Amino acid sequence: MFRLCANLRLTQLPKSVPESFMITLGLRRYSSPAKEAKISVDGVNINYVKVGTGQQNVLCFPGMLGTIWTDFKPQIEKLDTSKLTVFAWDPPGYGGSFPPNRTYPPDFYYQDAEWALKFMKALNVQRFSLLGWSDGGISSLILAAKHPGHIEKLIVWGANAFVTAEDTKLYEGIRDLKNWSDRMKAPLIKIYGEEYLSKTLSSWVDALVDIQKNQVNGDICRWLLPFIQCPTLIIHGAKDPMVPSLHPQYLLENIKGARYHEFPDGKHNLHLKYADEFNKLVEEFLLQ
């Protein structure tokens, strides 16, 4: 979903707001050699970074309200960029990709998938692998299924192909910023402003609730999973409070040839907390 780029440790986190879902804690201090750039895609200036000279292209796809640095800093700065060329972007309405303001129509996951492909094509990258986290993982599933000729390999975590009634209860728990501690919300407010953050967050919850109510069995992209042709790695944190294990298990059972790796103590932000282990896993899968 989204993470704060902060080297903080929270105390007295509200029970209704799982810590790993809301904020990245204890990020290491990395140097930041990568410079942000902009490219126009269908009239929207997309903010992105590109690092590395490797033959394998990889796109990092962030979660809801996620940005280049809040969601993928350890990957941008620590993946083997002699073998990989790593791209990370702010989808329209997130981070530095303004305008437009972010909205969540019923097909927003599908729209994000198309934006990602158009963005990579604008950079003259026709084939690439995907690192998709949370909402970015969902759109990565869609992108891999709908455009198999462009996707070499797929890695997703914190993603789900459908929404249950129990899932929506978790989402409702984070709707109101009043439930957040000041330390939690201050960094996001610094990025987005309180009004934009509150409105966007509430709109996202509304969209997921509508999917659960209005789509058969809360479907997002179940029907597309059999169309994923590329090698796929599904990663799951066994202690993820926002994505129950039924979701990665469903992906594993419905994506042909998919592999599965579990972090026993991992939560929603496992790639940040266990960055070195995660990066090694990613490199082995992408480069084998």
TrEMBL record:
Domain of life per record: Eukaryota
Q: Where is the AB hydrolase-1 domain?
A: 58-166
Q: Which Pfam families match?
A: Abhydrolase_1 (PF00561)
InterPro entries per the record? AB_hydrolase_1, AB_hydrolase_fold
A GO MF annotation of the entry reads: serine hydrolase activity
Q: What is this protein called?
A: AB hydrolase-1 domain-containing protein
| Organism, as annotated | Gryllus longicercus
